[in-house]
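Format is chain and fold; as here:
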Amino acid sequence: MNDAERLTQLEERYAHLQRHSLEQDKVMLGLSEAMAKLQKDLTALRGQRGSGSEGDDLPPERPPHY
């Protein structure tokens, strides 16, 4: 393998790694946004649970062995 072929092969590998890195960045950004939304939803649900009045609570569930 001469130097030109070796250089071409290295450039191809580098291009592949760059593309892979960009795809990973997009996925990580999407996961980060999804996690932020889930955290916001969880906070809202916890706030709803804590602000409910005593009369609105459901009766406790009976254990499965009854």
